[in-house]
Amino acid sequence: MARYGEGDKRWIVEERPDGTNVHNWHWAETNCLDWSRTFFTNLLTNQTLIDGEANLCIRTKKLDKLEGEAYVNVRKGKIIPGYELNLVLSWEGEAKDADGKLLSKTDGTVQIPYISDENADEDPEIKITVRDEGPVGRRLKDAFIAKGKPFVLEQVRAWVNAMARGGPAKDELESKTVVKKTTSGSTVAADADAPSDKAKTARKEGVKEKKREGFRTITMTERFICRSKDLYEILMDENRWKGFTQSNARISREVGGEFSIFDGSVSGTNLELQEGKLIVQKWRFGSWPDGIHSTGGAPTNILELGLS
Predict the structure, then answer these.
(1) How far is CA 144 from the centre of its chain?
(2) pLDDT digits (tens, 9 = 90+) for 206-237
(3) What CA–CA distances, in Å, run from 285 to 167, 244, 293?
(4) Helix (H, G, I), strand (E, B) or coil at 233
């Protein structure tokens, strides 16, 4: 291990002089609590939920409390939200008779004690309270549960989705997007750090010229303590593949048939099959560029497995 300050400079990540976090590679954390208060205030306060239906009027009043923590971490461009919040919202309602005369007016609260990232795919628990516990108050409470509760949950889901997209950090992430003019005069969004069209063309040409460079033929011999027919069956039975690898597999047992293993990460075609003796397959990783296979001269990637 190299002494401190004496490491290989090729492997030392240094801060840029201009302080730019290129492609959001470094870990960055943004406090989202104040932003969340503003978000919920805009969506939840002074909203009319029932206006005259069944002689009832109900509306939300204000966000009384939003406590806890909410933050967004960004690392290597990946957004990682985290939050645990306690929300309290006030509401008010009134009931009138058939002639429009006011019967009762009361208020209450909406309490969501636990909004957490670990339960982001579930609606949180909501508690509805009302000050007037009489018949009219219970009627208003039931009406709020029927109309107000779905509304509040909808806004909470909107906030959860906004956090998943980066919350207030979303603006910073999108600041790397610039607008450029196309030849037709229209505007399109483009990554500020993305290479130009000329650079892309030059890069593609370079790949075409060098795509055969750096390829090698690899020969490996492994010894398995088992019968050859058993090994053949293990490699050619898609159900065993699924069980051993805990991933999807589709394997044809016919010459010329196709196969796909490791959830589609590897795919190919059977070139030659001798049951219990030989498997010859053309294969490639799904992450490789189209038409690129590793071999020494042949246009395809061939795996030969001899079984004795």
Answers:
(1) 34
(2) 545 444 555 667 777 778 788 888 888 888 89
(3) 36, 19, 9
(4) helix
- pLDDT, averaged across the chain: 77
Reported as a single tens digit per residue, the pLDDT across 184-201 is 444 444 444 444 555 555
Residue 21: strand, helix, or coil? coil
The residue behind tokens 């293990």 is 234
Q: Are strands 102-116 and 78-96 parallel, antiparallel or unpaired?
A: antiparallel
CB atoms closer than 10 angstroms to residue 124? 18
- Return the number of other C-beta atoms located less than 10 Å from residue 285's C-beta: 14
Residue 100: Cβ-neighbour burial (10 angstroms; 0-12, 13-18, 19+): exposed
Please name the residue that has the structure tokens 């051993």: 244
Cα distance between residue 118 and residue 126, in whole Å: 17
Contact 231, 247 (CB under 8 A): no
> Residue 121: what residue type?
D
CA angle 170, 185, 201 (to 5 degrees): 75
pTM (predicted TM-score)? 0.51
Distances in Å between the Cα of 148 and the Cα atoms of 159, 160, 225 are: 17, 19, 68
